Amino acid sequence: MKFGKEFKKQKVSEWTEAYVDYNGLKHILHGIRSFRQNNPNLARASSKRLSLKNFNSSSLHESNIDNHDDIENQVIVVHTVHQENSRKLYNTRLIVSPTEGEGNERIFFKKLDDELNMTNNFYKDKVEEMIREAALLKKQMETLVALRIKVTNPSSHGLVSLKSVSTEINNLEPSKIIPPGKAEIFGQVDRKAGVEMSCRSQQQPGSSGVDLSFQERHSDSHPVVDVLHRNNSTNGEITDEYETSNLEILDRIKISNTYDSPMSTIRGVFTDTREKGLSYNKEELKEVEERLKIAFIEFYQKLCLLKHYSFMNMCAFSKILKKYDKITSRFVARSYMKIVDDSYIGSSDEVTNLMERVEAVFIKNFLNSNRQEGMKLLRPIRKIERHRITFCSGFFSGCTVALIVAVILLIEDRKLMQIKSATLYIEIIFPLYGFFTFTVLHMLVYAANMYFWRRYKINYPFIFGFRQGTELGYREVFLLSSVLGVMALATFLVHMHIKMDSETQHYETYIELLPLGLIIVVLAITFCPFNFMYRSSRFYLIKCVFRCVCAPLYKVTLPDFFLADQLTSQVQAIRNFEYYICFYGGRQLTRRLKRCSNNEVYNVFYFVLAVVPYWFRFLQCVRRLFEERDSVHGYNGLRYFTTIVAVVIRTAFEFRKKIAWKVLALLSSAVAAIANTYWDIVVDWGLLQRRSKNLFLRDKLIVPHKNVYFVAMVLDILLRFAWLQLVLILDVHSLHGKTVSTIFSCLEILRRGLWNFFRLENEHLNNVGKFRAFKSVPLPFTYYEDKDDNDGNERDEKDE
User: Fold this and answer.
1) N or C end of the chain: which has fewer CB within 10 A?
2) Do residue 148 and residue 170 come from a single domain?
3) Per-residue model confidence (pLDDT) at position 724
C-alpha cells in the first residue's frame, strides 16, 4: 500500500484537519514535475549536478561532506522565529539561481513550513493538556492511597508515618493499599535509550516502508512534566519529602456524584447536591478505585493517540521531502528533516515519559504488579477481521434467499392465498413471525449503516463508546441477521408445511409451539452469561435497553437516546411481542386461534406499548433539560409529546372508525410529521443552514456527492408522511390483512436507517470541529478549601 493511502487510513478521524496536508504537498510536487518535463535543459542540468554530487560523496570523507559539500550545494535556509509563548515558527527560503527558481518550489516550502508550524502548535497544545490532566490524576491517586490507608486503618488520623504502618501494610493485600512512597505515583521509570514506545492499539501493520530513523531521538523533558516525578532514592529508601502521608487531605475532599444509578439520581433530587461526603467503607473505596481505573485507561489511550499523531506526521514529512529530492535532485531532505527533528513534534518525549509512568502506576496500584494483565487493559488488541465471518455470512445469506423462495413456492403450490381458512390462519400467526421480520430488517439496516460509516471514516466506535477490540463490525451484524433470518424462515416453512399437510394433522398441538420455542431460544442466547456469541456486545445492548427503560433515573448518553430512537421505529415489532403473550395465554388451541382484538386487556396494552418508546425519549429529554439547562432539549421533549398524542389518537381511530377520530388523527399526525421532519433535517442532520457555503446544506460534508443529501431529505419527508396512510386507510385489493401496515412499518425502519447515517455524520463533524477524540471521564474526588479555616486565617492576619 502506498504511503498516501496508509497515511489517510491511519489518521485519527477527529484530527484530520490537524495532520500534514500530504495530498496538497503531492499536488504541488506534480506541478514541479510537469514544469521540469516541459524544460528538459533544466532537467539535464539537475542530472549533471546529481552525478557530480554522487561522485563527490563517494570520494570524500563523511566529515568533509557535512562541512564543505553541503554548504556549497545549500539550497534552503530555514529561519526560526521565537515567539513570546516559547513557541517557534519556521520560515524556509529557497536559494537557487533565477533560472531555476520555479514558483511551485517556493510555494511548496511555504506550505511545508505552514504544515510544520501547524502540527507543532497542535501537538504542543495537546501535550500541555495531557500534562495538566496528569497533574490532576497524580493528585487523585495520592488521595486514593490516603483513602486506602484510612479504610484499612480507621484509627489513623493526621500525619501518619509510613514506617509506623509498614507492618499493617504487609498484612494487607498489595492491591488494596500501597504506601505513597512505595506506590511509584507517576514515579520516574528508567527509560531505554533509543527505544520508541509503540501503541499497538493505534498503529497497524503495513507501514514498514516508512523511514523510522527519526524515532531514535531524545531531548530534555518539559519542565511541567516534573510534576509527575516522584523523587525516589536510589537504594529503595523513602525520601524525606514523601516519608509521611497527609491523611488530612481526606477532610478537604468529597466524592463526585455522577448520578449514574437510580438511587444516586433520587438522592440528588432531594439533596440537591452533586457531591457527597466520605463514609470510609470498602464499598466506597471499591467504587472510587473503579472510576479512577477507568480514568487511567482513558488517559493512556489519549497518550497513544498523541504518540501515533506525532509518528504519522513525522513519516509524512520524511516521505514528502524524499519525493521532492527525487523530482528536483536538490538534496534538501536531510537538512530540512534536521529542522523537523529539532522541532517540538520531533524532539519532545513528554508523551513517552507519561506513558511509561502511567504504565508503572496503573500496573502497581490496580493490577497488583501483574504487567501482562495491565497491558491488556491499557493496550487492547485491535480486532482482526477473520475470513470465516465472511464465509459464514455468505453461506447463511444464501440459505435465507433459498428459504424465501421455498416459502413462496409452498404458498403458490398449495394455493394458500386462495383458501379462506388458510388465509385466516396465516393472518393469525403472521404477527408471531412478523417480530423476526422487523428485527432482521433493522439489523440489516444497521449493518449497512456500519459499512458506510466505516467507508466514510465516521468514528462510530468512539461515538457509541464501544470498548476497543470488542466492537462488532458490519460483517458480524450481517452474520447475526442472516442466522436469525434462517432460523425464522426455517421455522415458518416447517410450520406451514406440517399445518397444511393432511397426513401430519395430529402434530397440530406441537406446531403452535414452534414460534414460542424460537423466541425462547433467541432470548436465551441474548441473556446467556457465557462467553460466546459476542457476549460483551450482547451485554452492552442489554445495558442500554435497561437504561432506556429506567429513564430518567440514569444519566442520558448518546447510545441511550440513539437506541430509544431505534425503538420508536419498532412499534409494530413491540406490539407483535405483546401478541405472543396474548396468543399463548390461552390454555387450549381453540382459544389461542381467536383474535386478540376481542381481549380488553390486550387492547389497553395495544395503546400503551405504542406510546412507550416515545415516552422513553420524552423522559430522556426532560432529564437532559434539567441537567444541562438547555432549552433545545425542552423543544425536543415537546416534539415527542406531540408524537405521543398523535399515536394515541391514531390508535383510537383504529378501534373506532368515526369521522371525528379520523379528523383528529389526521391533524395530530400531520403536526407530528412536520415537527419530526424539521427536527430530523435541521437539528439532527444539521442541514438547511442559512449561511452555508454549500447551498441548503452545511459547510462540512463527508459524502462527496451533494445530491445524496437532497435525495435523503426528500426521502425523509416522504417516509415521515407515509404513516398518514394508516389514518387514510388506502384500499389495496391485491394486499391482504395487515400487509399494508407491515409494508409501511418496514419503510419506517428503512427511514430510520437513513436517519442513522446522517445523524452520526453530524455528530462526528461536531467532534471533528472541536478536535474531540477523547472521552471525558469524571474524576472521583472533588477538592475544596475549608471556609472556616480560611476565615480564621483572615482574622488572624487582621489581628496581627
Assistant:
1) C
2) yes
3) 73
User: Among 347, 378, 409, which residue terminates a domain?
Assistant: 378
pLDDT digits (tens, 9 = 90+) for 590-640: 555 566 767 778 888 888 888 999 999 999 999 999 888 899 999 999 999
Dihedral Cα 443, 446, 448, 453, nearest 10 deg:
-160
- 349/459 same-domain check: no
pTM: 0.80
Radius of gyration of the chain from its Cα atoms, rounded to whole angstroms: 33
Same domain, 286 and 422: no
587, 495: one domain: yes
Domain's final residue, options 361, 378, 395: 378
343-355 pLDDT, tens digit each: 999 988 899 999 9
Domain that holds residue 756: 387-769
User: How many domains would you assign to the chain?
Assistant: 2
Residues 280 and 326 in one domain: yes
Crossing angle of helices 631-655 and 659-678, in 10° steps, is 150
Q: What cell was used for 177?
A: 493499599
Q: What is the DSSP string of 574-621?
A: HHHHHHHHHHTTSSSHHHHTS-GGG-HHHHHHHHHHHHHHHHHHHHHH
Closest-CA residue to 215 (of 196, 243, 241, 239): 196
Which among 469, 642, 618 has a CA at the least distance from the CA of 556?
618
Question: Domain check: are 339 and 454 in the same one?
Answer: no
pLDDT one-digit tens code per residue, 41-87: 655 555 445 444 443 433 333 333 344 444 445 677 888 887 776 78
Q: Which residues contact 743 (CB under 8 A, 6 or more apart)?
A: 735
**Are residues 325 and 332 in contact, defined by beta-carbon separation less than 8 angstroms?**
yes
Cell of 576: 407483535
Q: DSSP states of 533-564 as a string?
A: SSHHHHHHHHHHHHHHHTTTSS---HHHHHHH
